[in-house]
């Protein structure tokens, strides 16, 4: 009884951190990711459980006081045992491999989410040390805050101003890297309104610890209202204000831009390929030296 309580406490302490994580998916991609995880776990238990049981069983059977256990010091080979110990792991490797292969093609970051709703496009740039989200079709942008309409696929294009980063919203699914000079793709969807924690999943320097952003999934009407409200406040995002934003800063309070110069995202990506470009001032000197 006392041990039961202890087990519950340990379980609660270890699983408590998972409340807003990959085990609590809020969209189709995250749900599929969790399914791959659980399937792989289940298949691997086919080895783990027999090994644990057999270990305890062998130790118990060959205890000193068991008169019926035979001592066989000359035993070297058993075809049947070999077949058993090789076939189960081989099957596991094939099954886990199969689950991972099929599953990861299904949730390929490049693959659009099947839906009747037109996807929302968002262009993501990781900066030192904050996230910039540009809504090219709405002409607005935000920093460290991502508003999305619930039930609508979101099509992300991602790049980095310098250091490699990793864009990750655990409850919506697959993380993906952001890299300077190139664009990665990701499709995610939140099924219901809610707010989800987004983060950088790759260490990127001094301000990394505060590179969090909040994802706010709202009803589509609310999203349209947010876009309208955003168009009326804040600065414009153009080459000048982008250069200011790109200067290293940490723990940046979320804010928005009323408008965005068309094509800015492409110029961020392109400028990252040239050293000393007007827009690459965001990269620390060490990074520029490496290019
Ligand atoms: Cu790696």
Q: Which helices and strands, and how do they pair?
A:
Elements: H1 2-15, H2 28-61, H3 79-106, E1 120-127, E2 130-135, E3 140-143, E4 145-149, E5 154-160, E6 165-169, E7 173-178, E8 184-188, E9 194-200, E10 213-218, H4 220-230, E11 235-237, H5 239-246, E12 255-260, H6 264-271, H7 285-290
Parallel strand pairs: 1-5, 4-10, 11-12
Antiparallel strand pairs: 1-2, 2-3, 3-12, 5-8, 6-7, 6-9, 9-10
Helix pairs in contact: 2-3
This protein binds copper (II) ion.
Structural commentary:
It contains seven helices and twelve strands. It is an alpha+beta fold and 291 residues long. The protein has a seven-stranded mixed β-sheet with strand order 8-5-1-2-3-12-11. Strands 4-10-9-6-7 form a five-stranded mixed β-sheet. The chain has helices spanning 2-15, 28-61, 79-106, 220-230, 239-246, 264-271, 285-290; strands at residues 120-127, 130-135, 140-143, 145-149, 154-160, 165-169, 173-178, 184-188, 194-200, 213-218, 235-237, 255-260. Helix 2 runs antiparallel to helix 3. The structure holds copper (II) ion.
Question: Outline of this structure?
Answer:
This protein is α+β, with helices and mostly antiparallel strands and 291 residues long. The protein is built from seven helices and twelve strands. Helix content is 37%, strand content 23%.
């Amino acid at each position: 009884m006392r041990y039961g309580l202890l087990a519950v406490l340990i379980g609660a302490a270890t699983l408590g951190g998972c409340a807003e994580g990959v085990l609590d998916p809020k969209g189709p991609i995250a749900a599929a990711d969790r399914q791959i995880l659980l399937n792989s776990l289940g298949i691997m238990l086919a080895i783990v459980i027999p090994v644990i049981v057999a270990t305890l069983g062998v130790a118990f059977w060959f205890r000193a006081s068991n008169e019926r256990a035979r001592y066989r010091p000359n035993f070297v080979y058993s075809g049947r045992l070999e077949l058993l110990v090789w076939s189960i792991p081989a099957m596991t490797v094939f099954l886990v491999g199969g689950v991972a292969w099929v599953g990861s093609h299904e949730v390929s970051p490049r693959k659009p989410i099947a839906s009747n709703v037109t996807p929302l496009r968002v262009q993501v740039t990781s900066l030192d040390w904050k996230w910039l989200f540009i809504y090219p079709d709405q002409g607005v942008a935000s920093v460290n805050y991502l508003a999305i309409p619930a039930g609508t696929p979101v099509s992300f294009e991602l790049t980095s101003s310098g250091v490699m980063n990793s864009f990750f919203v655990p409850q919506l699914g697959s993380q993906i890297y952001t890299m300077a000079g190139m664009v990665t793709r990701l499709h995610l969807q939140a099924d219901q309104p809610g707010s989800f924690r987004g983060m950088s999943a790759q260490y990127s320097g001094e301000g990394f610890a505060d590179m969090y952003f909040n994802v706010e999934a709202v009803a589509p009407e609310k999203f349209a209202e947010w876009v309208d409200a955003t168009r009326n406040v804040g600065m414009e995002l153009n080459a000048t204000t982008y250069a200011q934003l790109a200067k290293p800063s940490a723990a940046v309070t979320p804010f928005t831009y009323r408008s965005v110069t068309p094509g800015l995202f492409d110029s961020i990506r392109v400028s990252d390929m040239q050293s000393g470009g007007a827009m690459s001032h965001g990269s620390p000197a060490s990074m520029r030296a490496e290019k």
